[in-house]
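Let's practice the habit of predicting before peeking. Look at the sequence and jot down your guess about where helices and strands might fall. Then scroll down.
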Amino acid sequence: MSEVEKALSSAPEPAAAILDALNATESNGTKALNATAKFVATPEGTALAYGSLVLMALVPIFFGALRSVACSKSKELREKAYESGFRNASDMPETITSRDAARFPIIASCTLFGLYLFFKVFSQDYINLLLSVYFFVLGVLALSHTMSPLLSKIFPASVPNKQYQLLFTQGADEAKEEIINYEFDTNNLVCLLASSVVGVWYVLKKHWIANNLFGLAFALNGVELLHLNNVSTGCILLGGLFVYDIFWVFGTNVMVTVAKSFEAPIKLVFPQDLLEKGLDASNFAMLGLGDIVIPGIFIALLLRFDVSLKKNSRTYFCSSFLAYIFGLGLTIFVMHTFKHAQPALLYLVPACVGFPVVVALFRGELSEMFRYEESFGEEGLAKDDSSESLKKDQ
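Done guessing? Here is the structure:
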């Protein structure tokens, strides 16, 4: 199915650049991963694979959107993050502005073409070895961050949750400067250990289940921590990637070439021959993380807009979420019918933007939707905190 393009988060920029570079859709039964011969999937296997991919796509969008609301509403988190010098930056959302949104398709195109040239010039094996190490680190951190809230709720009360601090400084006395100042607890260590086991499993076996665990963690973190500042920015981002996706899938073979060469947990996969071969199945249908994260951050924005209305309804979130299901289903139908790679955003963008706009027109809230503005990030924190300091001084 889809091969990715990622927007990403306040994760390191190389990761965001690589992950947002890919976004193509593989047709049913065509040269799946590690396949040595053409495989014709059974109707049952195809339905199971597609249904599982749709379900896996919905999970990070739904829970990532909910967590994005908690992230933006938490004043305690903002104050703590600023007081700690943003040392736990992985817990802080990154705001995407209209300028970022306008530049993103251009950056993604350059990255995609650069990867295409890399795979043409250098050995694919060496490149993928470096990527495996790189995504091992990123995947462990992302999965640990995803698991931490869940584990904190089920962690036995009888087990002490000790607090730790990792501190690196340079200089001495008054000239001492903090380089790293990170706080964590026993719960975080358990999550990190469990995530490391999954990471070793992925590096050694490249198993599709380990790939999906990392992929789901990347997607959920992206939806949670990447915040569009307003609906107009979301329309700019989705509109630009709409054109980007169509051009690189239908206009050239660059997207498909990179997608087939790129071995990293930047996609969700599910075997179409699972019923025949069990967990050793090797003919996969795929959905790129970009087709989850890009619409997902827009859907999360609409959920936060619903919350801001204070009407105890989730109209815009529900309409956009249902629109995503419709768009993804249409992508699968067209791909399965024509047996050809499809740019998923071709169907997802009009659905995810169009449905909520129609609902807003019907409810007479279109202008209010486009006036909704979010301000969150380091600049906002510094500004807020300095204002509070001024008040205290006065």
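How did you do? The first helix runs from residue 13 to 19.
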